[in-house]
Amino acid sequence: MLKIRLEAISLAIAVLTLFSAPLRAQTGKTLKTIIVDAGHGGKDAGAVGQYEHSLGSREKDVTLSISMKLVAELKKQLPDVTVVPTRTTDIYQDPKEKARIANENKGDLFICIHADSGPLKTGRRQIGTRTVTRHKITYKGKGKKRKKISTPYHVVEPVYEYFKLPLAAKGTTVYLFAAHKTSDKLKAIMNEVGEFEVEADSDMDSTTSAFDFTTPEGRMLAKIYMSRYQLKSDKIGTLINDQIEATGRPALGVNQRQKGIWVLQATNMPAILIETGFINNPEDERYINSEKGQQELAEAITKAVVLYKKQLEEANAKSN
Ligand SMILES: [Zn+2]
């Protein structure tokens, strides 16, 4: 009980700190830096096209191609925004490395590009027959004279070939960091102890304020940041889903994955992961490997980011 009351008091203090004029927290600022992460890389190929007659494409190559097109498109349409790719070549990166790049570059948005997959069923078909010899066992005589007689005979049996069936699932899905994993997100926010940029009102210079996230008040403040990140992640996720839908592709919505996605939890910023398509669905595999498909995805995501930036700026203008 006491603990709950203390937390309530801390929350009140944190809210007061956060909203007291003239300081406004950094979560209200516009979009200045976007981190684009090409999922997997190097020794980590990610999912591979494995159904029969697939292109055999590797997720790490698809994510790199789409990410490079996305980086180019974002730079073209948002020249005042810094766009930082986590990788531009086929190199392996530990998820910690990806998160470090995002945090060190002080991203305001983290976009992870991936391709989906799922367990494949095995099919079989008859490719011929073969003749096999079997033996019929009979017995002759009685008692000690009983004799075993083996008579060979031939049977024709089918020969089967086994193969991987393609996935029926297709489309693009956007994932957010899972609510039950938020303690990691909290940790990522709290790692930024001290130097936390706080934007001043228009009549004041931008300043840096030292928030100590190790204190109960700081912890509550971090929780407020976290829920704001979640709201923003949901906002950009929904905009992306809408733009994907506008291309005519199946848009499978904005979801939270039960397992959680580590890299989304480890970044101190709104973060989303886009499963661009199913690498084991024939239509999707061809789409995400094609120049046209990759460019269409890059443009749809960019359109959503442009709208998101506009919404942030409008919200900021209102609060000023
Ligand atoms: Zn992946």
End-to-end Cα distance, whole Å, is 39 Å
Please tally the β strands and state the result: 11
Shape: elongated
What ligand molecules are bound, each kind once?
A: zinc ion
Strand order of the largest sheet: 3-2-4-11-7-10
- In the CATH hierarchy, what is the class of the largest domain? Alpha Beta
Structural class of the secondary structure composition? alpha/beta
SSE order, one letter for each helix or strand: HEEHEHEEEEHEEHEHEHH
CATH homologous superfamily heading of the largest domain: Zn-dependent exopeptidases
| Average residue-wise pLDDT | 84
Cα gyration radius (Å): 29 Å
Question: How does this structure look, described?
Answer:
With 320 residues, the protein is of the alpha/beta class. It has 2 domains: 2-117 and 169-319, 3-Layer(aba) Sandwich (Aminopeptidase), CATH 3.40.630; 123-163, no CATH class. Helices cover 40% and strands 28% of the residues. It has 8 helices and 11 strands. A 6-stranded mixed beta sheet has the order 3-2-4-11-7-10, with helices on both faces. A hairpin with a 6-residue loop joins strand 5 and strand 6. Helix 1 packs across helix 5, helix 2 crosses helix 8 and helix 4 packs across helix 5 (216-246). It starts with a helix and ends with a helix. The structure holds zinc ion. The site of zinc ion (ZN) has 5 residues, from loops.
